Amino acid sequence: MKASKFYFKTRKEVSQDEAAISAVLLTKANFIEKLTSGVYNFLPLGLRVIRKIEQIIREEMEAIGGQEILMALLNPRKNWEQTGRWDTFNALFKVQSKYGSWFALAPTHEEVITPMVKNFIHSYKDLPLYLFHISDKFRDEPRSKSGILRGREFIMKDLYSFHQDEKDLEKYYNRVKKAYQRIFRRCGLNALVVESSGGTFSRFSHEFQVVTPAGEDLFYHCRSCNLYRNKEIIKNTKKCPQCGGPLKELRGSEVGNIFKLKDKYSQSFDLKFRDKNGESKNVMMGCYGIGISRLLGVIVEANHDANGIIWPPEVAPFEYHLMGLLKGAKKEDEAIKRQVESLYEKMLKRGIEVFYDDRENVSSGEKLVEADLLGLPYRIIISEKSLKNHSFELKERKSQKVKMIKLKDFDKIIKGR
Ligand code: ATP
Ligand code: MG
């Protein structure tokens, strides 16, 4: 991609009310733009990261049998009344049609998927079933200072599983837990599995927490027995409820959570199946969420320095940042440009994801500052000096290590993902 043709202009200033460092860096670097409190536009760079995260999630969901669907966001009021959540779901956005009827803007999808699968699940032969959905969600959250970590419109992946019994649900729940660990690792994150109160339907559910000062959740770690547990269920925050050891308080952001719903929603919608003996039983359900737009922010919270973002390779919008250091001397500049163009063409042909800063009206100094802000994993530079030595400069964003490499070795070194 050529910067001169790309929807791309970095910003020096970000509005004062943007407190989270992720929102500040992502706005400055032109990944996102705030429309209003808790509502963001994703610009080409931001969307590329979102797509990469989604791709990782799709692969891991399909690997555990998930089938993708896309459910409606405009939900009829009666579905939400059937579960009682029309009145009890605090953050529910309610909208009225000018023709009279009321709708909820979906904050989660149990009210849609449970009646939907009634048309499919009749017998034990139809189970288990795993369906997932990637799309926007709406929640009327109180104003927060967390930027895209807490949106009023945000992107979520939600998976729902349907089972004959609790044993099968438990087995799948543990498979999802492992898939989640793979997803977060691939996103460059160390997500801790934290036990949390499962409310009325099961003793524990699990949250995946990334330690960051920008997080809104507190949880505790016991080093003696390696227990991680959410604040809400720990009465004495000094002592581990499992082994009595001392607890350490941690602050984190929840990037995902998994939950055994058991038959709570099957009961509401009368979702039943006939077992092997012809007996009618409630379907057991699990639900499993990942905050995709929150992940975009958490990845930045966990991977940045004073100069900007440091993308983990698998979710970087491009792998390479390519530029020539022009000096304003016509002859030398032409030679540099020719060399950079030829590397660019070569990389494109080989399917390498490269962001080529070919802009004429931006100084080399500014381009270098912007390259650090954008945070692509590798930077390739051709300068007058490197060209004299038939070389290019390769810099790793993370380690800041610079290597001079001979142009003839380009193909050997620059391989792409
Ligand atoms: P939280 O505790 O952060 O409010 P939650 O427990 O209500 O989240 P779920 O309903 O389980 O979250 O949603 C699944 C995932 O969606 C969460 O783990 C989180 O990563 C993400 N998420 C939830 N609410 C928001 C939001 N307002 N903005 C961005 N992501 C969100
Ligand atoms: Mg939560």
Plain-language structure description:
The protein has twelve helices and 23 strands. It has 417 residues and is α+β, with helices and mostly antiparallel strands. The chain has two domains: 13-305, 2-Layer Sandwich (BirA Bifunctional Protein, domain 2); 318-415, Rossmann fold, CATH 3.40.50.800. Residues 108, 139, 141, 150-151, 154, 156, 254-257, 289, 291, 293-294 line the site of adenosine-5'-triphosphate.
List keywords for this structure.
Rossmann fold, BirA Bifunctional Protein, domain 2, elongated, 417 residues, binds adenosine-5'-triphosphate, nine-stranded mixed beta sheet, five-stranded mixed beta sheet, alpha+beta, 2 domains, binds magnesium ion
Q: How many beta-strand segments? A: 23
Q: Rounded to an integer, what's the Rg over CA atoms?
A: 25 Å
The small-molecule ligands in this entry are: adenosine-5'-triphosphate, magnesium ion
Q: What integer is the average pLDDT?
A: 95
Strand fraction:
25-35%
Give the biggest beta sheet. Answer: 9 strands, mixed
Low-confidence stretches: none
Kindly state the percentage of residues in helix.
Answer: 25-40%
* CATH T-level fold name of the largest domain: BirA Bifunctional Protein, domain 2
Oligomer: single chain
> What is the overall silhouette?
elongated
Give the name of the CATH architecture of the largest domain.
2-Layer Sandwich
Instruction: Please report the distance between the alpha carbons of the first and last residues.
Output: 17 Å
What's the tally of helices?
A: 12
Name of the top-level CATH class of the largest domain: Alpha Beta
Return the domain count.
2
| The CATH homologous superfamily of the largest domain | Bira Bifunctional Protein, Domain 2
What structural class do helix, strand and pairing data support? alpha+beta
